[in-house]
Amino acid sequence: YRGIITKRQLDWLKNDLESIPKNKLILVATHIPLLATADDGKSTPVTGPGTDNFAELIEILSPFENIYGIAGHDSSNSFKVEINHSHGWSGKPWIAHTLAEVRGNGWTTGLTDPRGVRDAMMQDGNPNGFYVLKFNEVDVVPEFIPFPFGPDANRRIRITLDPMLLSSQDNSINRGSLQNDAKLVVNLFDGGVRDSVWLSLDGSPEQAMVYTVRTDPYVERIYQELLDTDSQIDPPTRSSHIWEYQLPSSLPVGIHRVEVFTEDEFGQQQRGAFSFEILSN
Length: 281
Fold this sequence. Notes:
The strands form six sheets. The protein has a five-stranded mixed sheet with strand order 12-19-18-14-15, with no helix packed on it. Strands 2-6-8-7 form a four-stranded mixed sheet, with no helix packed on it. It has a four-stranded antiparallel sheet with strand order 11-13-17-16, with no helix packed on it. The mean pLDDT is about 90. By secondary structure, the chain is mainly beta. It has one domain (about 1-280). The chain has three helices and 19 strands.
């Protein structure tokens, strides 16, 4: 699915902006994302819907110093793309932001919250929610807020193990044996490659986690759990806001605690904690 800005729209925009001071904040709102892509430098970049003649829009916007773009449409992935020289933009970099969590991945399938309403989780693992856009002169800070129901209520990050601990007990949560190549995986909701994520394992100094374009293991599990039922969800897609940490294979038997700290490109900080118990090696 590709978008295009018609000549009539471009002409209108160019004419409308002629009377606007060049240092004012220009907010570009579109249905189809202007640009939706994520690249971790290791795997094939993930790409969502985009605008084919984006370069024509850039030419019209080029005299302006402060720009922020918002879009929707894509109900599987959210993206924060920095528009810079690699896109033919010579001014101050700005963000083309896909805010698709407001709709989520449909209202008729998936898990239900305590009200009996489907949670509409996106295929990249972002929960359904809404945004508060905070404006201050030429600056804008978008705050994503999950709806206050369901498994991710009041959270900004999800922390999981991949693979899960191997347990002989049914329904045991985060208790069992550590499997080979186990990783701690963090989904920073509405995150992106320019955000920073650190963790502290059992009180150790903070270590940077590795940005990785991959599927969210939580979504993988929910997909398998609901497969071939009336609640079946769409398959998970590679997410643009995942970070990983390789767990040491030598972790001893006992309870381990992980604290995660994040800061996004707008200066917003989040914190989360996760505990698991290794029963045997």
